[in-house]
Every structure is written in C-alpha cells, then in structure tokens.
Design brief:
- By secondary structure, this protein is α+β, with helices and mostly antiparallel strands.
- It folds into 2 domains: about 5-105, Phosphorylase Kinase, domain 1; about 110-320, Transferase(Phosphotransferase) domain 1 (Transferase(Phosphotransferase), domain 1, Orthogonal Bundle), CATH 1.10.510.10.
- Helices cover about 30% and strands about 15% of the residues.
- It contains 10 helices and 16 strands.
- GO terms for molecular function: ATP binding; protein serine/threonine kinase activity.
- This is Protein kinase domain-containing protein.
- It comes from Hevea brasiliensis.
- Belongs to the protein kinase superfamily.
C-alpha cells in the first residue's frame, strides 16, 4: 500500500516530515549494526539526524497489514502530547510505501531487556531506582487517563514498552494500539489486542476496554519490577509459574517480602516493597471497579495516601485465564500461531481463538503482540 495515497495521512499535522533519504543516511542505510530492536510492526534503528540529535527510528515492515492504522494512531496520539514519562516523537516519514516513526533515543533500552531480560545488564536496579521507575510510569499513565480529553487508554502497558533514558527515567512507548475514549463513554468494545500476562480478564474475555484494563497491566508490571521476574515463567515449579498467583498466595500467608528480587541482597525498604506489591494487587483485582484510578495509585506509591489492606481482593489470575479452552469457531479448525524469538513465555500463544463459558460471543480473537523496543 502506498501510504501517500491514503486520505488519512492528510490528518497528520504538527509533525515534522523526514525524507526517506534523510533517515537512510541517519542509520547508515539501515545497517544491522545500528539495529536496536524489533517490534510488532518492524525494526528500530539508532540514527544520527542532520541536526545532530540521536534518534530511535522505527521502520514499519511493508508487509504488515495492520501497520497503516497503528502507524497513524501512534502519530496522532503522541504528536499532540508531551510528558516527562512519555516518549517524544520527533517526526515521521510517509514517502512512497515507507512508514517510519522518529523518536528520541533512550540510552538504556527497555525494562524487558535490562531488568527482566536474560542477558545481564550492567545497570544496577537499586530499590530507589525501582521505586522511581514505578512512580514515573504511574505518573505517565495518570496523565494519559486523567489529564487529557479525550482520555487515552494505552492497551499495551508492559515491560518492553517502558524505555529508560540515561538517568533511568521511565518513558511509556508504543502508542500503536492506543484508544482515545470520549468522556461521555464508560467503555468501548473492541478487538482484543495486547500481551497475554498483562491483559485484564474483562478485556481479554469480553473485549470491554476501559482505563481499568491499563491499570491491571500496570499492576502486573509493578509486581514484575519489585520481584525482578517476568509475569509468567514455565521453567519454574508449577506453583510459582504465574507471578500474580504467587503474589496473592504470599500475601495471604503474610510473606510478601519473600517475593522481592533477591539480586537486591536485602538492601531495600521491606515495608515499602511490600506496600508496592499490595498496590500491584489493588490494581489487578478481578472486579474492575475495585481497581484504583492512576492518580490514586501515584498517591499510594508516593506515600500521600495509605494502602487499606481491607480493600485488597483476589486478583484476576492469568492461570484462570489460561484455562480457557482453545477451540475452533463453528466449522473451522483451531489455529495457533506462535511467533519466533518472543521475549517471554507469557507471549507464546501468538494468535488464537479463545472461547469461554462466561462470554456471550461465540469466540474472542486475542492478538498477543510481539515484544519490541519501541
């Protein structure tokens, strides 16, 4: 598809347009040496722009069928807003069939690669650093959810979409799946898109999207940051594979401190770490209306509001969600595609048709997105 012929491109404004030649030069002809990541819709390269700025250049693959819509969404969402905890869009390229986004380059990659990744990072994630990252992401989400009109639901909050600058300030990235929701609407029903392990049950099963779905994803991320491990790891003993289930179990036994990342070697504020884990449980409660809004989460994380233990109820657990039967729609064979090189076991379902006894629709299509840097 030639995106230049698409009428929607006319809606792109307030964004610098780069030529393909400029970006090819910036990345030394998109050399593999400059490749810094791979995302759901293409590759990300480090490049030096003509004005001397270092940029992250996200090239959408030409064969991506979904790419145009997500590309335009990302431009129109992120070009209008600015916040310390959101990535900054420099511009884009819509020349011929090329679709390229140009972002500020963030030196320390994503949380998925540095904190949770199997390759050992030289970054020291002290308790203070983790606390700062949790609060920063919460502030970025609170801004999207509560300071904008229409407000924005990100739909794909996860470790690989939290990038870190040179000071380890977190930046929420990848707005390709974002939804703008007018203030007069309580929720939208939409095709489910996101990453298994971070998906709120009501969204995964019924396609009901509200801010509370992002809040659930944030709760999962919060527990990952404190524990230093991915939300799902099938290499662990069966009772420890699902992080949220393990968190609830330890909470009931009053042993939450046992979940804190052992790489901290005991050098952390135990009371604060347990508080953060409780906030993670508040955010992932099975009933969406019980989850706090992000502005409240910021107050809880920063100590401006106390956590009320009596308000913590059982989370919507991925293990329950994974019990959904994968079966075909009528007169069709089930199809499960697994993507290659996915960064965590939680994402290896790829695309599948899921049905459940408590959903009224015949089938819910779930798209688990491929992990990437931006």
């Amino acid at each position: 598809m030639n995106i230049s012929d698409d009428s929607e491109v006319a809606g792109i404004h307030n964004v610098k347009l780069y030529t393909y030649k400029e970006l090819r030069n910036a990345t030394e002809d998109f050399s593999t040496a400059n490749k810094i990541g791979e995302g759901g819709f293409g590759s990300v390269y480090k490049g030096k722009l003509k004005d001397g700025r270092i940029a992250a250049i996200k090239v959408l693959s030409a064969e991506s069928r979904q790419g145009v819509k997500e590309f335009l969404t990302e431009i129109n969402v992120i070009s209008e807003i600015e916040h310390e905890n959101l990535v900054k869009l420099y511009g884009c390229c819509v020349e011929g069939n090329h679709r390229i986004l140009v972002y500020n380059y963030l030196e320390n990659n994503s949380l998925a690669q540095t904190l949770l990744g199997e390759s050992h990072s030289n970054i020291q994630f002290s308790w203070r650093t983790r606390s700062k990252i949790c609060i920063g992401v919460a502030r970025g989400l609170a801004f999207l959810h509560e300071d904008l009109r229409p407000y924005i639901v990100h739909r794909d909050i996860k470790a690989s979409n939290i990038l870190l600058d040179k000071d380890l300030t977190p930046k929420i990235s990848d707005f390709g799946l974002a939804k703008l929701i007018p203030p007069n609407m309580t929720h939208v029903s939409t095709r489910v898109a996101g990453t298994i392990g971070y998906l709120a049950p009501e969204y995964a099963i019924r396609g009901q999207l509200t801010r509370k779905a992002d809040i659930y994803s944030f709760g999962v991320l919060l527990v990952e940051i404190v524990s230093g491990r991915c939300n799902t790891n099938t290499r662990l003993p069966i009772d420890e594979q699902y992080l949220l289930e393990r968190t609830w179990e330890l909470y009931e036994r009053k042993e939450l401190v046992g979940l804190v990342d052992t790489s901290l070697n005991g050098d952390f504020d135990a009371e604060e770490a347990c508080k953060f884990l409780k906030i993670g449980l508040l955010c992932t409660q099975d009933t969406p209306k019980l989850r706090p809004y992000m502005s409240t989460v910021v107050k809880l994380l920063t100590g401006k509001k106390d956590v009320d233990n009596s308000k913590i109820t059982k989370p919507g657990l991925i293990s329950d969600f994974m019990d959904l039967k994968v079966r075909p729609p009528p007169k069709a064979k089930p199809e499960i595609k697994t993507g290659s090189n996915m960064s965590s076991d939680s994402e290896k379902l790829g695309e599948s048709t899921l049905t459940s006894g408590n959903t009224t629709s015949a089938a819910t299509t779930l798209t688990a997105s491929y992990d990437g840097s931006i």
